[in-house]
Amino acid sequence: MKSISWKKRFKIWLYNFYPPYIGAGIRIKKIAKDLSFFQVEMNLRFYNKNYVGVHFGGSLYSMCDPFFMLILLEQLGSDFIVWDKVGSMTFVKPGKGKVTATFAIPESEIQRIKMEVETKRKGEYHFTTNVFDEGDDIVATLEKTIYIRKRGRLPVQNV
């Protein structure tokens, strides 16, 4: 994988200061130099608890939302359009204490997607990750569907 400039990594690190992340107590802890891997965590605080004293579901989803799309945007490059299409989270057990999620797409999967989109011009791809508590128990499972299309001129219509 290609190495990403320190400026771009710094820009991603600045997400730690994105108001919704600050408000939820979300921190990006690890970023791969090529932006192919992210590790994100969130501690339970008074401002991100729900009514029954565990992690607010919206904060858990926010913690996970952009990372698969970000990885694909960086790994596929500017010849491709990448959009989140569907996202869902299944809550498995109450989140207490610190929760962590990791996001990675293997190089082989990136290459497969690239080749498929080069051939078909577009596709939808599904990714899953889990949010874990400090005891390595699954708190929630995130499922994302990402739409990817080859950038380029559209065929002339209605000529």
Quick summary:
With 159 residues, the protein is an alpha+beta fold. Helix content is 29%, strand content 34%. A hairpin with a 5-residue loop joins strand 1 and strand 2.
Task: Describe the fold and architecture.
The chain has 159 residues and is α+β, with helices and mostly antiparallel strands. It has a single domain, classed as Roll (Thiol Ester Dehydrase, Chain A). The chain is built from five helices and six strands. The protein has helices spanning 6-13, 19-24, 57-64, 67-76, 107-120, and strands spanning 26-31, 37-42, 80-91, 99-104, 122-132, 138-150. The protein has a six-stranded antiparallel beta sheet. A hairpin with a 5-residue loop joins strand 5 and strand 6. It starts with 5 loop residues before the first helix and ends in a 9-residue tail after the last strand.
Q: Could you tell me the strand content as a percent range?
A: 25-35%
Report the structural category: alpha+beta
CATH architecture: Roll
Strand order of the largest sheet: 1-2-4-5-6-3
Broad shape: globular
| CATH H level, superfamily name | Hotdog Thioesterase
H-E order: HHEEHHEEHEE
Distance between the termini: 43 Å
State the CATH class: Alpha Beta
The low-confidence runs, each spanning 5 or more residues with pLDDT under 50, are: none
Number of domains: 1
Q: How many beta-strand elements?
A: 6
pLDDT averaged residue by residue: 90
Q: Helical residue percent?
A: 25-40%
Q: Tell me about the largest β-sheet.
A: 6 strands, antiparallel
Radius of gyration: 17 Å
Predict the CATH topology: Thiol Ester Dehydrase, Chain A
Number of contiguous helices: 5
